[in-house]
Amino acid sequence: MRSADATINKHKRELELCTYCPKLCRHSCPVSNATGRETHTPQAKMQLLNHLQQGSVEWTRETARPLFACLECKNCTTYCDHGNDVAGALAAGKAAASERGLQPIEYTQAVRDYRLRETRLRNALQRTAAASEMATRGRIAYLPGCDNIEFFPETISDAFSIFRRLDLRFVRMPSGITCGGHPLWAAGAWSAAHVETERLLEHLSGFSTLVMGCAPCTDLWRRRLEEHGISHQLDVIHTSEFFFTHLERLKPRSVRRAALFHDSCSLGRGLGVYDPPRRVASRCVEHLGEFFHHRDRSPCCGADPALDAAMPEVRAKQRTERLGEASRYGIDTVVTTCARCRRSLSRSAAGDQRNTVDLVDLTNLLAEALHTENR
């Protein structure tokens, strides 16, 4: 297992470039935009990490705290002339602080919650209509993601209704798994995350393909695990990509009038997946529009459990601006491929009686358009 400090050293070039940069990406950070603090801008956080790593600034809980003010959304990289991987460097910085026991209390609690919610998620999964689809092996494993299990179980039922419509009877949910482990990696608990990933790999050993309903976990399993020295033979794809491969067999019976498409940071900037989900969504609405900033410039919705506990104003600002734009366009449907984004934005809609925007997952939209038997 590669240490966090060793990973930081891999980002030496990025750290030096950011340290002496004129801060042209500062407008792109959802955290600094919400808090209004200079120490939360991408350049300031990278400069701090550089000084911490060089030893010119002492590692303390207070000095390390700004490193955690990062959603790893990669939007700053989009605006960087050098393409600096700021998210990767700061992720290593968070892990290095955690290895020293300097993480904020909210991140310690996030790791504890990961363990405590396991039983709750398993019980919730057993209550879904798709519980009978669980197995220890099969051709394709479908992992819906913890947010879908806990907050949007209808998405799981809709996914299996689509699988049946496509006559894909060999898709199963892997027994013993509720979450792909992303919350542990995002919290900087790399040691615990390594152990958890090895456990998950054992449960997935009977499958060859992994279809994931969670965008952050898709990015983790397809790209980031290899960066941490963890290899596997699974073919990992997101549900939107999976449905896209069967696009010609999808024959919608009805469509909504119009919708805007919200890009997930993990699926978009993380994996470069922009067109497949849009192609599927276009089958389900008469007119699929775009936010003013979209694709690789789509702003992060601010969804991260630990950061939300530490800085709730970040998510509040992002979700208000995103849904406000949809309302100004007169669009009442926003489509997303990320349950975490949906939860974040839905909580905003529920808290504003003037907001009538319907947040819908692509899976739910497709099932609705197909008039599957669960509807």
What tags apply to this protein structure?
single chain; 375 residues; alpha/beta; Rossmann fold; four-stranded parallel β-sheet; globular
Structure description:
This protein is an alpha/beta fold and 375 residues long. It has three domains: 4-99, Orthogonal Bundle (Fumarate Reductase Iron-sulfur Protein, Chain B, domain 2), CATH 1.10.1060.10; 105-244, no CATH class; 252-370, Rossmann fold, CATH 3.40.50. It is 52% helix and 10% strand. The protein contains 20 helices and nine strands. The strands form two sheets. A five-stranded parallel sheet has the order 1-3-2-4-5. Strand 8 (333-336), helix 19 (339-350) and strand 9 (358-361) form a beta-alpha-beta unit. Helix 4 packs across helix 7, helix 10 packs across helix 20 (362-370) and helix 18 (312-329) crosses helix 19. It is globular, with a radius of gyration of 20 Å. The model has no long low-confidence stretch (mean pLDDT 89).
Give the topology:
Layout: H1 4-10, H2 12-19, H3 30-35, H4 42-54, H5 61-64, H6 75-78, H7 86-99, H8 105-126, E1 134-135, E2 140-143, H9 146-151, H10 153-165, E3 171-174, H11 182-186, H12 190-203, E4 209-212, H13 215-227, E5 235-238, H14 239-245, E6 256-262, H15 266-270, H16 275-282, E7 285-290, H17 305-310, H18 312-329, E8 333-336, H19 339-350, E9 358-361, H20 362-370
